[in-house]
TrEMBL record:
Record flagged with keyword Nucleus: no
Organism: Pseudolycoriella hygida
One GO location term (cellular component): cytosol
The entry's keywords: Carbohydrate metabolism, Cytoplasm, Glucose metabolism, NADP, Oxidoreductase
Protein name: Glucose-6-phosphate 1-dehydrogenase
Length: 497
């Protein structure tokens, strides 16, 4: 769509600065993403890149760290060399204005002409946000064009810390300069939710409490913390996945049609939905923590969460959580929205399941199963509608089948971009559509903060579940009580993935 936020300033210099250039996020996601955008000619021609970190490194050393993640094809070697030739690195402290002034001087040497733009990516731990953002404001803001700041989660740990961070950033930058990145908003099928809902007459009229029994939004990982539990333990699965990724998906599923596709019109509707959700209580949830599976196929599967040496002894941090949210508005009153996420489960999957009500006036003796629309985010992007049909043959039996849009079948020749590619390109273009606004963030923390404080202040014991299982059986029971029916009889054709 040719609208605001879909074009960038092609003819002007752009400087992209990665703070935390020596870290994991930079080498695994940011530098590979910048390379892919450069390779595909999706960036302004006059773009250069600066890395900044405390470590005394060279560009060559950063390149070596990134190599396993860059996915360079044999015919791209020259372009790859050209990419690294426009990368630069400055070493400095995060709390030193003098070092930031040195970075600014380096950048100024590339800003010829009357106009130049700057982008700053804060790939940093929260402890460094404040000093870095102050020094950017005081020493690194470009004077010839716009400045945009990309902030990586976590955006605080609760309502108070999030507000403190938001107030701090608001004191330094305008809201339109801030891009709070939640990479799930860049996923293909998450982005497709708007079109599915509002571009199809067949779906949107049934998208309400009269037709839908429940909505289940899931995020499942088949592996545990794998020796990196120290960071995870500080946040837990609710802060790591549910309060941000899953709640963002919920707001897109449940929001009303925006007035236009303008980013603020869309985000206005997302905020209205969040305002209609009451804060969570412990009774709305099931919390779990995985234990080792003695019959596991590898060492990770045999280790429980507490066996990870980086996890504090006796930790009660949940590695699994299921929460039932209620949206108190005319469209959704009485429809449970179930958020479920966990580590060390039976599969890798992220999806939305919109389950329809039972067919009234059943004439098939209870054999008919509920319809479901399933939007699979990963792996293997797909949209399919589960429906009942007569099974082929002479008998009059019924079976579950699907109307199916599996992307790797329908779009075999299409290379889907990584979520970070979309989002970083959005920042160049100035589109805020897929980024989190400050009032969205405030409402999200309002919903979850009382629950998080209750868990921590009352030493809540999570339910053990075995590595590689579906999670605690109490979670399935909670789904059943929340009007989501799991039959276990539907068979997905694996050849589609």
């Amino acid at each position: 769509m040719n609208k605001e936020g879909t074009q960038f300033d092609e003819s002007f210099p752009h400087i992209f600065v990665v703070f935390g250039a020596s870290g994991d996020l930079a080498k695994k996601k940011i530098y590979p993403t910048l390379w892919w955008l450069y390779r595909d000619n999706l960036l302004p021609k006059k773009t250069i890149f600066f890395g900044y970190a405390r470590s005394s490194l060279t560009v060559r050393e950063i390149r070596e760290k990134c190599t396993p993640y860059m996915k360079v094809r044999p015919d791209e070697e020259q372009a790859y060399e050209d990419f690294w030739n426009i990368n630069y690195y400055v070493s400095g402290a995060y709390d030193s204005r003098t070092d930031f002034e040195k970075l600014n001087q380096e950048m100024c040497t590339f800003e010829n002409g009357l106009h130049a733009n700057r982008l700053f990516y804060l790939a940093l731990p929260p402890s460094a946000f404040q000093s870095v953002s102050v020094n950017i404001r005081n020493a690194c803001m470009g004077q010839k064009g716009w400045n945009r700041i990309i902030v990586e989660k976590p955006f605080g740990k609760d309502a108070a810390s999030s507000k403190a961070l938001s107030d701090h950033l608001a004191s330094l930058f305008k809201e339109e300069q801030l891009y709070r990145i939640d990479h799930y908003l860049g996923k293909e099928m998450v982005q497709n939710l708007m079109t599915i809902r509002f571009g199809n007459r067949i779906f949107n009229p049934t998208w309400n409490r009269e037709n839908i029994s429940s909505v289940l939004i899931s995020f499942k990982e088949p592996f545990g913390t794998q020796g990196r539990g120290g960071y995870f333990d500080e946040f837990g699965i609710i802060r790591d996945v549910m309060q941000n990724h899953l709640l963002q998906i919920l707001s897109l599923v449940a929001m009303e049609k925006p007035v236009t596709c303008h980013p603020d019109d869309i985000r206005d509707e997302k905020v209205k939905v969040l305002k209609s959700i009451k804060s969570l209580e412990l009774d709305d949830c099931v919390l779990g923590q995985y234990v080792g599976n003695p019959d596991g196929k590898d060492d990770d599967a045999k280790m429980g969460y507490l066996d990870d040496p980086t996890v504090p002894a006796g930790s009660k941090t949940p590695t699994f959580a299921l929460a039932v949210l209620q949206i108190k508005n005319e469209r959704w009153d009485g429809v449970p929205f179930i958020l479920r996420c966990g580590k060390a489960l039976n599969e890798r999957k992220a999806e939305v399941r919109i389950q329809y009500r039972d067919v009234p006036g059943d004439i098939f003796g209870g054999r008919s199963k509920r319809n479901e629309m399933v939007i699979r985010v990963q792996p293997g992007e797909a949209l399919y509608v589960k429906m009942m049909t007569k099974s082929p043959g002479i008998t009059f039996d019924m079976e579950e089948t699907e109307l199916d849009l599996t992307y790797n079948q329908r779009y075999k020749e299409i290379n889907l971009p990584d979520a970070y590619e979309r989002l970083i390109l959005d920042v160049f273009c100035g589109s805020q559509m897929n980024f989190v606004r400050d009032d969205e963030l405030s409402e999200a923390w309002r919903i979850f903060t009382p629950l998080l404080h209750h868990i921590e202040n009352n030493d809540v014991q999570p339910i053990p579940y075995v590595h590689g299982s579906r999670g605690p059986k109490e979670a399935d029971e909670k789904c059943d009580k929340s009007n989501f029916k799991y039959y276990g009889s539907y068979k997905w054709n694996n050849s589609k993935m």
